[in-house]
């Protein structure tokens, strides 16, 4: 394990049970409340042995005067557990085992010393527990503040959204009303105008009719007559040209119900010390075959926890680092499965942690073998992941003759890094990215940082602080560089994606509350962030602002499903290429999430995979895939046809993860099992 958690010293055994019985000078068995020092309080000037003078059972003959001279010897009766003088030793205690007081005192002191040491030995353990508890308390408090802020922000955003919708509706109402009102008003005006014309003309005509019929007015009356004729036949809009309907349809019931259930505070009462793991995968497994461990979470009293979402981590490792890859499946009922595959045989340590603490019995000893039985041994050649280093050539020999056309020979240019925590050292590095300005970025997952190098492999800088607060990293597994220079980091354990400036200054996080276990990240042609959520088996597409553009995928073996997606790359057509670790395939999707192409199957032959991880795509659309379990790198054309291997035979890979193309056209890969990254020639 590379975490700081070194195995704790064995629990301190309660001293009282293991210590030899202490012969305290139980001077005061008769006077229970008294303690040692009281010996001297009753008769201050009196020497030690006088203490027994106060013991009621002491015989009267034993009077102080007889003790005025110091006794020759001082004795201790271990039967009565009192000091006695010679007189008493021969008298009342004659049949009792007595011995020299000094020896008894010595034994007593030794016992006391032993108890002192035992008690003191508990102090470091207490200090350690205090540190750990304070840390947990601090983290809990931080978390509360963060979530409080998240709640405020989320609801402010909801309010804003509601306000916007309100304005839109009010505006729509205004516009609709206005249009209708205009039509009706115009009709009204027309009618009023018509009415006015008729009334006026009629009045004039009536006036004319009431007067004398005169030739002089004939002309005017003819005019009136014509107007009246026109008015009587004038077309007027008597039928309403609009209706009065303006209704509001507002289905708020569903929304209100949603709002009532909006948001959930997630936690469990699970504690590591009570939680247990079971399953054969706890002790043994076979190289290349998935193994399973079941974890039952329990609370402090040992009662089962019945809800999911606990923060669990699992790691199979040697002192040199991680040798397995797998997923934790949350059944949401307090039970979890850790399904993993190991890529080499040997004895390993399997660490299972709940909230960063080892669960009961963790770390476990795991024995990984090639085959469980002779039958299996026969099949071995075909069993996934069972290949030895360099047997890639065997695989190639079985493959198409095309391999001969592979112009590549021994392609390594250089390797950088060893296991460690310093600059240029790695502990289980995962994602790799290359920027257009000649940098290589490495997500150093167990060192909780990102390290930056030049294309030539010179260390440039690193950043990252371990933690669960925004701006901190818990398990950075994916890294990408945005065209604007920002560095995008998928944090598997923090369940979000962090964005840093090119100088490593924290800017924002995205996907928080949505993502379950983001492993790989990439950037598409629109500058959108593509996130591969390994746990949710979903690909998310975000704007850099954090707004979700779209998502696709779920757990399964269907067309739009994944069995364990790890990394993604985007080609020139903005198509998304995803490696599906447990389906041993590579899947290509449209930006809308329609499956265009799927290639690969489980095996060691050309174009086959044993758990693909890192993926990159070149300008011609060729796809480069890290084949984790087969410890090799394969190159395919855009239609998924196998083209070649990158020749890694001189210095074999060991569980390669992230992979990228550098700005100078080389392939850089995270050689996780070897805790280094390697740069290879590519199609040159
Ligand atoms: C939780 O769910 C899984 C899968 O459905 C089941 O196998 C397991 O027994 C359940 N565990 C408990 C404690 O109910
Ligand atoms: C890989 O390179 C080595 C030299 O290190 C060479 O011997 C071998 O033939 C090459 N393999 C392939 C498959 O090209
Ligand atoms: C991978 O998925 C396909 C369907 O796309 C399915 O038929 C196949 O069985 C899966 N392979 C494995 C190894 O799960």
UniProtKB/TrEMBL annotation:
EC number: 2.3.2.27
GO BP terms, alphabetized: nervous system development; proteasome-mediated ubiquitin-dependent protein catabolic process; protein polyubiquitination
A GO term for molecular function: ubiquitin protein ligase activity
NHL repeats: 413-456, 461-503, 504-545, 549-592, 596-639, 640-683
Biased composition regions of type Basic residues, renumbered to the chain: 379-392
SUPFAM superfamilies per the UniProt record, alphabetical: B-box zinc-binding domain, E set domains, NHL repeat
Filamin repeats: 267-368
Domain B box-type, chain residue ranges per copy: 74-101
SMART domains: BBC (SM00502), IG_FLMN (SM00557)
Domain of life assignment: Eukaryota
Family per record: Belongs to the TRIM/RBCC family.
Protein name: RING-type E3 ubiquitin transferase
């Amino acid at each position: 394990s590379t975490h700081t958690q070194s195995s704790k010293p064995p629990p301190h055994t309660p001293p009282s049970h293991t210590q030899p019985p202490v012969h305290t000078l139980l001077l005061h068995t008769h006077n229970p409340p008294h303690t040692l020092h009281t010996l001297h309080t009753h008769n201050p000037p009196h020497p030690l042995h006088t203490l027994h003078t106060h013991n009621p059972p002491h015989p009267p003959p034993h009077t102080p005067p007889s003790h005025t001279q110091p006794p020759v010897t001082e004795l201790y009766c271990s039967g009565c557990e009192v000091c006695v003088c010679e007189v008493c030793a021969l008298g009342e205690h004659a049949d009792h085992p007595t011995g020299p007081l000094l020896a008894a005192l010595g034994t007593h002191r030794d016992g006391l010393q032993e108890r002192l040491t035992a008690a003191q030995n508990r102090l470091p353990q207490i200090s350690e527990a205090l540190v750990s508890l304070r840390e947990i308390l601090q983290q809990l408090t931080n978390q509360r503040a963060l979530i409080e802020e998240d709640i405020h922000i989320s609801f402010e955003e909801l309010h804003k959204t509601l306000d916007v919708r309100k304005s839109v509706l009010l505006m729509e109402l205004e516009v609709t009303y206005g249009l209708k009102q205009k039509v009706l008003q115009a009709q009204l005006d027309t009618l009023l105008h018509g009415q006015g014309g008729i009334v006026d003309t009629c009045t004039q005509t009536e006036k004319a009719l009431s007067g004398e019929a005169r030739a002089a007015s004939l002309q005017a009356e003819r005019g009136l007559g014509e107007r009246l004729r026109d008015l009587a036949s004038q077309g007027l809009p008597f039928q309403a040209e609009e209706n009065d309907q303006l209704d509001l349809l507002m289905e708020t019931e569903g929304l209100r119900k949603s709002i009532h259930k909006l948001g959930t505070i997630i936690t469990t009462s699970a504690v590591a010390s009570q939680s247990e793991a079971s399953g054969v995968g706890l002790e043994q497994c076979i190289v290349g075959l998935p193994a399973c461990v079941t974890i039952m979470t329990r609370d402090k009293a040992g009662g089962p926890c019945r809800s999911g979402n606990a923060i669990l981590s699992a790691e199979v490792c040697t002192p040199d680092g991680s040798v397995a890859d797998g997923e934790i499946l949350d059944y949401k009922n307090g039970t979890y499965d850790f399904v993993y595959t190991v890529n080499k045989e040997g004895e390993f340590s399997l660490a299972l942690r709940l909230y960063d603490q080892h669960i009961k019995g963790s770390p476990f000893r795991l024995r990984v073998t090639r085959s469980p039985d002779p039958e299996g041994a026969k099949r071995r050649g075909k069993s996934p992941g069972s290949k030895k280093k360099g047997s890639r050539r065997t695989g190639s020999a079985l493959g198409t003759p095309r391999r001969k056309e592979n112009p590549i020979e021994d392609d390594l240019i250089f390797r950088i890094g060893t296991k460690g925590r310093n600059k240029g050292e790695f502990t289980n590095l995962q994602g790799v990215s290359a920027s257009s300005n000649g940098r290589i970025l490495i997500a150093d997952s167990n060192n909780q940082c990102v390290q930056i190098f030049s294309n030539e492999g010179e260390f440039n800088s690193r950043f990252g602080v371990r933690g669960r607060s925004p701006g901190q990293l818990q398990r950075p597994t994916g890294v990408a560089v945005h065209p604007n220079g920002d560095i995008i980091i998928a944090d598997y354990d923090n369940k979000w994606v962090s964005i840093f400036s090119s100088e490593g200054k924290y800017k924002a996080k995205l996907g928080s509350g949505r993502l379950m276990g983001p492993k790989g990240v990439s950037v598409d042609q629109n500058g959108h962030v593509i996130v591969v959520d390994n746990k949710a088996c979903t690909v998310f597409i975000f704007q850099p602002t954090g707004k979700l553009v779209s998502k696709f995928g779920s757990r399964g073996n269907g067309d739009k499903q994944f069995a364990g997606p790890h990394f993604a790359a985007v080609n020139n057509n903005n198509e998304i290429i995803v490696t599906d670790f447990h389906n041993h395939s590579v899947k290509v999707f449209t930006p809308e999430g329609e499956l265009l192409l799927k290639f690969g199957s489980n095996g060691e032959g050309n174009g086959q995979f044993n758990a693909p991880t890192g993926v990159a795509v070149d300008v011609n659309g060729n796809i480069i895939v890290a084949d984790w379990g087969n410890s090799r790198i394969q190159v395919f054309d855009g239609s998924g046809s196998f083209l070649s291997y990158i020749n890694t035979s001189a210095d074999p890979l060991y569980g390669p993860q992230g992979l990228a193309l550098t700005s100078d056209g080389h392939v850089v890969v995270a050689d996780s099992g070897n805790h280094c990254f390697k740069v290879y020639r590519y199609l040159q």
